[in-house]
Design a protein that fits this description.
17 strands; alpha/beta; Thrombin, subunit H; QueA-like; nine-stranded mixed β-sheet
Length: 341
Amino acid sequence: MKTSDFYYDLPKELIAQTPLEPRDSSRLLVLGKESGNIEHKHFYDIIDYLNPGDLLVCNDSRVLPARIFGIKDETGARVEFLLLKQISGNKWETLCKPGKKAREGAKFSFGDGIMTATVVEVKDDGNRIVEFECEDNFFSALDRIGQMPLPPYITEELQDKERYQTVYSHELGSAAAPTAGLHFTNELMEKIKAKGINIAYVTLHVGLGTFRPVKVDDVTKHKMHSEHYEIPEETARLINETKKNGKRVIAVGTTSCRTLESVASFYGEIKPCDGFTDIFIYPGYEFKVLDGLITNFHLPESTLIMLVSAFAGYDNIMNAYKVAVQEKYRFFSFGDAMFIS
C-alpha cells in the first residue's frame, strides 16, 4: 500500500483547538468493523456499547510539562527546550529552538533561577544532551515552570494543564497524551464499572515520534520510533481471563492497542512484562488480542490512520472519515472519538 492511499481532505476549521467540557460530551462515531455501519452518538453513550465482562485497557501514562523556556546566561537570548528522553538523573535529550543558540557548553536559567542547565553534547541529529540543576526535586520544578507539549496543529494556549491529561493518568513520562482517554470522566468510569465492565491499565510512554510524518511512499518501508511499555500482572491476568470467558478486550487508544499487540506478537501470549516496542500496524496485520478500539480521528497519511484501517478495514475507515468530515466532527487530539467493534 502507498502512503498516499491514506490521504483524506480535512478542512482546517475541523481541527479541534480546545477541549470540550465536560470531557464526555464530545461526539462518538460508532463503526461496525464487519458491517461498516455507522452511528452518531455522544461519548457518554459508550456505556451502551459495552457489555458486562468486557475489559477496557487504558494507558495510564502521564504527560510531562516538557516545554520550557530558558534564558541564555551570556546574551539573554530566549531558547525553547523540549524534553524528549531522560538519559540519567537530571540529564535529558532535548530539542532546542533556535538550535544555534544552544551550542555545547552554553548555560541557561529557567523560571527566574528555579532551574539551570548546561548543554553537554550536540548529537548528529541536532538534538541536545542537557544537564539540568535545581534545588528542588526536578519534576516538581518542571511542574512549576513547564508547559504542555501540545501538538503543532494546536495553536491556542491551553488554560488548564490537566485537560491534556487523562483522569486516570499516573505514570509520568509521555511527550504527548494518549488522547482517546481524554474523553473519560471519573463519573463515567464509575458507571462503566457498576455495569460489570472491568478496567485495566498498561503504561506506554508516548514519544514525539507519534507526530512524525511517514516520508516514504511504500508503507512497508517506514520505520517506527521506539516507546517504553509495561504490562502489570493484574492487567495480564484480566486480559487472559476475559479472552477465556469469550468476552471482549477493548483498547482505549492506539497506544494501549500497540502495547497489547506488541507483547502478544513477541511472546505469543499476554504476560506481565516491560520493554520497548516499535511495532508498526498497517492493513494486512492480524490482530491477536483486540476485539474493540476507542480512538480519536487521526492525521491523513499517519501511522495511526494505518493502524485503525488494519483493525476496521481500509474501505470502512476511509468511508467513516469522509462521513465524519461531512458531519463536521472535531478532529485530532482535542477532537471527537470513534468506537470500532
